[in-house]
Each structure stands twice: as C-alpha cells, then as structure tokens.
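Design job #97: recover the sequence.
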C-alpha cells in the first residue's frame, strides 16, 4: 500500500499536463499506486494549485499553455513554504540540455515522454518513498 505509514495519510500528487491522453495514463497510474491525485491542464493556475493542495509530488510538463513548467518549477523553489514538494519534470524533448536546465531550476527528477509506465512508477516511488526498496 502506497502512502506515509507514519501518519496513515496517502501521498498526494498533482499532475500538471495539458495533453489529455498523457494525463489519463498518469491518472490511471496514480490511482493504481494508491496516491491521491489532482490534475490541472494549464500552467496559469498551477502555482496556485500547488500552494493550495501542497502535494507531496508534482508531475510537471515542461511545455504548457501560458506558463512553462520551468517557470513553475522556479517559482515553487523560490517559495520556502513549498520546500518539501518534490518535482518530476516531463518533456517530449528529453535532451541533455533540457534535463540540466530542469535540475538547475530545482527539479528532483526528469523523465522524457513518451515514457514507459514502469519507468515513471519507479521515479515516483524514488521521490515519494525513499528507502522503501
């Protein structure tokens, strides 16, 4: 059972993804893994949603309408109240330069789309359940 065994609460994941087909796959995976999750489809409201929900993990697309994932990542990292929020960036252009930029802005992980669900699941577990292996 996924979740935080010390408090008995389930881990919360916020999906920030504008492509419905990818969001549906992410939604399915988060449900199957037992995580509470929400989705926002644009970059514009993402920061407000992160502040309101204070998720354990944000699955953050780089290419979003209105505000890029990079900008959102930078804003989250500038907010000390969100220091414990993990960020896994996702991009269809998984170049080494993009990965370096995401990590430099404070992302905890970076995954290229299309990704295997197992690869994504492993990254989510690495970020949410350190030492669980």
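Job complete. Output follows.
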């Amino acid at each position: 059972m996924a979740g935080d065994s010390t408090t008995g609460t389930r881990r919360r994941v916020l999906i920030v993804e504008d492509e419905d087909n990818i969001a549906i796959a992410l939604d399915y995976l988060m449900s199957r893994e037992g995580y509470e999750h929400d989705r926002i489809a644009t970059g514009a409201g993402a920061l407000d949603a992160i502040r309101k929900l204070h998720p354990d993990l944000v699955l953050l697309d780089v290419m979003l309408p209105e505000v890029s994932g990079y900008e959102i990542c930078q804003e989250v990292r500038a907010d000390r109240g969100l220091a414990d929020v993990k960020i896994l960036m996702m991009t269809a252009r998984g170049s080494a330069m993009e990965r370096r930029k995401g990590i430099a802005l404070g992302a905890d992980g970076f995954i290229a789309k299309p990704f295997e669900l197992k690869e994504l699941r492993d990254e989510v577990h690495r970020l949410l359940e350190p030492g669980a292996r």
